[in-house]
Write a structure and sequence with these properties.
It contains four helices and six strands, in the order ααααββββββ. It has helices spanning about 10-45, 50-90, 95-115, 120-140, and strands at about 145, 160-165, 175-180, 185, 190-195, 195-200.
């Protein structure tokens, strides 16, 4: 008796072949995913090398020490520069205190010279005061102590001290020193004592 089994058609054969290829592709993808998961698990659970950890810690400590060293060196340089400036200032303005203490003596000599000598004794005494005054002025000039320009000058608050004001006129414009009540002095480029003045306003 002849078999009644039906032979598969060309269309059925193509479907079976496509299904087989799809199954194989899915199997490969699943295997690849499993391999990646296993690799990640192995990496996460891999033990840390103690030598590498110690080396990293030592490197970090070395970097911190280097930073501290650089900061310390910079501070030393700054301190050295400040010391040099202070030393130069001390040398430059050495004698300022002494010069300032001498100014009242100079003022008293000027007051003595402003008095009238009515007799021969007073005149001789006045000549002696003039000599002392001249020597003192010369000594101050040699040590860079100079008188502040004031009378008729434009008022300058860095070298003048206004103690009185008067109305300004055509001959005496505003901000002009019209009278000096006490002389001022400079020591090199510093104001040793400002001049006490009357200013037109």
């Amino acid at each position: 008796m002849k078999s009644l089994a039906k032979k598969p058609t060309t269309s059925e054969q193509a479907d079976e072949q496509m299904a087989s290829q799809t199954a194989q592709s899915a199997a490969k993808q699943t295997a690849s995913t499993d391999d990646q998961t296993d690799a990640q698990t192995d990496t996460a659970t891999a033990p840390v090398d103690p030598a590498n950890a110690k080396l990293a810690a030592l490197q970090q400590e070395l970097d911190q020490k280097d930073d501290q060293l650089l900061r310390t060196q910079a501070e030393i340089v700054n301190m050295r520069n400040r010391f040099k400036k202070e030393q130069a200032s001390i040398i430059k303005y050495d004698g300022q205190t002494l010069a300032k203490d001498v100014l009242p003596v100079l003022d008293n000599l000027e007051r003595a010279l402003a008095t009238d000598a009515t007799d021969e004794t007073a005149q001789q005494l006045k000549k002696g005061v003039e000599m002392v005054y001249g020597h003192l002025q010369e000594a101050l000039k040699k040590n860079n102590v100079t008188e502040v320009s004031a009378d008729g000058a434009t008022f300058d608050p860095t070298i003048h001290q206004a103690v009185q004001t008067v109305p300004a006129t055509d001959d005496q414009p505003a901000e002009t020193v019209v009278k000096v009540l006490q002389k001022g002095y400079m020591f090199k480029d510093r104001t040793l004592r400002p001049a006490m003045v009357v200013v037109a306003q």
